Amino acid sequence: MKTVETLNEGLKREYRVTITAKDIDARVDDEVKSIAPTVRMPGFRPGKVPPNLIRKMHGAALSADALNKAIEAGVRDLIAKEKLRPALQPAVTLGEDYEAGKDAEVTVALEVLPDIEAPSIEGLKLERLTVPADDKAVMAKIEEFAAQMKRFEEAPKTKKAAQGDQVIIDFAGSVDGVAFDGGTGEDMAVEIGSGQLIPGFEDQLVGVKTGDEKVLKVTFPEDYPVENLKGQPADFAVTVKEVKVPAAASIDDEFAKSLGLESLDKLKEIMKDQVEQELNGLTRTHMKRKLLDQLAAAHDFDVPPTMVEAEFGQIWQQLEHEASHEEDVEAAKAELEKDRDEYRSIAVRRVRLGLLLSEIGQAHGVQVSQQEMQRLVAQAAQQYRPEDRQRFMEYVQQDPLAAAQLRAPLYEDKVVDFLFDKAEISDRETTREELEAAIEADDDGGHVHGPGCGHDHDHDHKPAKKAAAKKPAAKKDAVKEEAKAEEAPAKKAPAKKAAAPKAEAEEKPAAAKKAPAKKAAAKK
Q1: What is the predicted pLDDT for the residue at 471?
Q2: What is the DSSP secondary structure assignment for residue 489, as one 8-state letter?
Q3: Residue 59: what pLDDT?
Q4: Residue 496: DSSP 8-state
Q5: Within 10 Å of residue 300's Cβ, how many Cβ atoms?
Q6: From CA 465, how far away is CA 335, in angstroms rounded?
Q7: What angle do the packed helices 264-298 and 340-363 form, to 10 degrees?
Q8: How far, in Å, CA of 407 to CA of 417, rounded?
Q9: In angstroms, how far is CA 18 from the centroid of its own chain?
Q10: How far is 170 from 113, CA to CA, in rounded Å?
């Protein structure tokens, strides 16, 4: 194999790799030997088909497979020989003039991770803002929980439904007079004003009473999950079977017993634990942001453009999704465009911090144990159907990049915890309002909110946004710790709308790792 460097500019590298026809042919021979025992041909005993006949039968496929393996080996050798640390998987291009039986000329283009001086972790100073879980906070949590468990009681048949009431309906939906799959239902409970159903559906139920029949005219959202219904106007013929009103909720021992607990005191005990977890999460969010601020201020180095583009793409996709749920979609998207450069800067910051945390973790021996990784995979598998979970676990085991993406958030948290242990921390008691205000104040500084790379998960990126009338998502949501983006399960398919993702409070940079030898991929 012959290698020539054709580009060395900043973090960009490009090489011309020549793989000889002799090497490719030798690999074809290896493939022939490998499959020979399984080849069947009339007139020959199993495993006794001559190699030249196997070549004649499967030559094209064997040559293509041998070429691919030769290229993969060539790229691995190149990375090892040049001691490269690819930022993402290299782009490999086979010359257009390649013909079977000739040398193969391949172009390998990639970006490498920057050389980062061993980051200093000395002199880190942080303030830990703490909020006590007092009785007032616990009762507020119980009241919130009680509101979620709202009960409704039968109203007089003459009662006209109002906002907050519940209406029991039968419905039949149609588009252009034609019924569609899943468009009918019976005894569906609709809380008017809950925002559970597609825009306009609930509002048109205001004023109905038991026995009424009405045709509701609505338009399915453009992002509705059923393809043939996206953006379509539809009619729903509705029969009102009952109107119910909210029942007064008393928070007492009886309420606790209805939840399977022996007393209100036991409920308070459980809720206090939840409040403490929430408050500790907010405290950690604030501390982590301040830590990352210090790291970002102390380190400045070039980052791979492709990693920045990938990170920016995730940010922009999330923002456009949110903008699509605004009343004036075009105005919201125009507002976003004004701040495109700002969001690109956020992407650069994320990538730089991800590389920095990775470097710190490797320098100080921070690791994710095999047991921790197994727990991560098992937890992630729970989002799939039972029959698909084993396949998912096998996929993660076989794909280093998938495993890295799953591992990244935990690894990052462990590095952050390591740095917390090294920092000088002072404690100050405050209120929840002040703590949330401190986190919101960070939003205006261009901080990033969202899950650490990858994910998943299921994990969408969501950067901070300036307060603006038409910008997607309110800041109030941006201080909720680890709120997961999720689609609301379809209660009744035709009437349900897709839920917009909630913001996650904790800032997470894009993590990166050293590329494995087998796959030139460094993004987690």
Answers
A1: 34
A2: P
A3: 63
A4: B
A5: 7
A6: 11
A7: 90
A8: 16
A9: 40
A10: 60
Quick one: which of 360, 367, 505, 362 has its CA closest to 422? Answer: 360
For residue 221, give the amino acid letter.
Answer: P
Cα 252 to Cα 261: distance, rounded to the nearest angstrom: 11
At 116, list the tokens: 């980062």
**What pLDDT was estimated at residue 449?**
31
**Range 467-493 burial, b when 16+ CB lie within 10 A, else e:** eeebbbbebebbbbbebebeeeeeebb
Q: In this structure, are residues 460 and 311 in contact, taking their beta carbons and an 8 Å threshold?
A: no
DSSP codes, 309-346 = HHHHHHHHHHHHHHHTTSSSHHHHHHHHHHTHHHHHHH
Structure tokens at 235: 């009619």
DSSP 431: -
Rounded to an integer, what distance in angstroms lies between the CA atom of residue 192 and that of residue 168? 11
Query: pTM of the entire structure?
Result: 0.65
The full length of the chain comes to 524
Burial (CB count <10 Å: 0-12, 13-18, 19+), residue 47: exposed
What's the CA gap between 337 and 74, in Å, rounded? 43
DSSP result, 199-238: TTTTGGGTT--TT-EEEEEEE--TT-SSGGGTT-EEEEEE
Distance CA 134, CA 272 (A): 8
Residue 513 identity (one-letter amino acid): K
**CB-side neighbour CA atoms (13 Å) of 83:** 2
Query: Would you say the C-alpha torsion 253, 194, 244, 224 has a positive or negative sign?
Result: negative
Residue 496: both structure tokens together: 């349900």
Q: What is d(CA 71, CA 398) in angstroms, rounded to the nearest whole number?
A: 20
**How many Å apart are CA 341 and CA 323, to the nearest integer?**
17
pLDDT at residue 520, as a whole number: 31
- Edge-to-edge order in the sheet of strand 12-19: 2-9, 12-19, 104-111, 91-94
Nearest CA-CA partner of 235 in 285, 290, 174, 304: 174
Q: Which 3 state secondary structure label does DSSP give 6?
A: strand
Which contiguous run of DSSP H or E holds residue 374?
helix 370-381
Contacts of 30 (CB under 8 A, 6+ apart): 66
Torsion of CA 434, 439, 443, 445, to 10 degrees: 90
In 248-300, which residue ranges form alpha helices assigned H by DSSP? 253-258, 264-298
CA distances from 228 to 158, 180, 402, 487 (A): 39, 9, 33, 19
**Distance between CA atoms of residues 328 and 82, nearest Å:** 53
The parts of the chain modelled with pLDDT lower than 70 are 36, 47-49, 51-52, 54-59, 443-524
Do the Cβ atoms of 234 and 171 come closer than 8 Å? Answer: no
Question: How buried is 248 (Cβ within 10 angstroms: 0-12 exposed, 13-18 middle, 19+ buried)?
Answer: exposed
3-state secondary structure of 350: helix
| HSE of 523, CA atoms in CB hemisphere, 13 A | 22
Residues 479/505, Cβ–Cβ less than 8 Å:
yes
Of 446, 428, 436, 416, which Cα lies nearest the Cα of 480?
A: 436
Contact 439, 282 (CB under 8 A): yes
Integer Cα distance of 204 and 163 in angstroms: 11
